[in-house]
Amino acid sequence: xxxxxxxxxxxxxxxxxxxxxxxxxxxxxxxxxxxxxxxxxxxxxxxxxxxxxxxxxxxxxxxxxxxxxxxxxxxxxxxxxxxxxxxxxxxxxxxxxxxxxxxxxxxxxxxxxxxxxxxxxxxxxxxxxxxxxxxxxxxxxxxxxxxxxxxxxxxxxxxxxxxxxxxxxxxxxxxxxxxxxxxxxxxxxxxxxx
Length: 194
Known about the structure:
Blueprint: H1 2-9, H2 21-53, H3 57-63, H4 71-75, H5 78-92, E1 94-97, E2 101-104, E3 115-124, H6 127-135, H7 137-149, H8 159-174, E4 184-192
Antiparallel strand pairs: 1-3, 2-3, 3-4
Helix pairs in contact: 7-8
């Protein structure tokens, strides 16, 4: 029985050490993964810094182009800043970006339907007018869709035709706005099928 205990105890001894290649591979993979992760973090940080340093539309409107560094504008009185900001916003207006339109065009006598896919922005003078447009968005969208439905693809093929449509949209929207008038209509994306 003593011999049996010795044979059983022998397997409990330390196994023969392997070459350690598996441990080296894990260390290398962890190191590579760490370097890649740190690189990605650095790229994201730098792109965020670059984005933060770029002047936004609000910065440009607030400075009114007179003081690009903003140093002289900061010396003025707070009341003057508010007045300049209000004047700048009235000068530039407010842009309202409408959701994309995909609209059927008038194709009388043809079997192939034609459509336009358009992104439209509307310029208004004040925040009150912007609020009114947002409250009346169903009426705004319906008016624009009706105007496009009356157009043929040939009507929209030229810049004159598109400019005429912009004027029609502007006049139609101004006909039901109370707090202000649309200053401009802009097509930020415009495609006609076929």
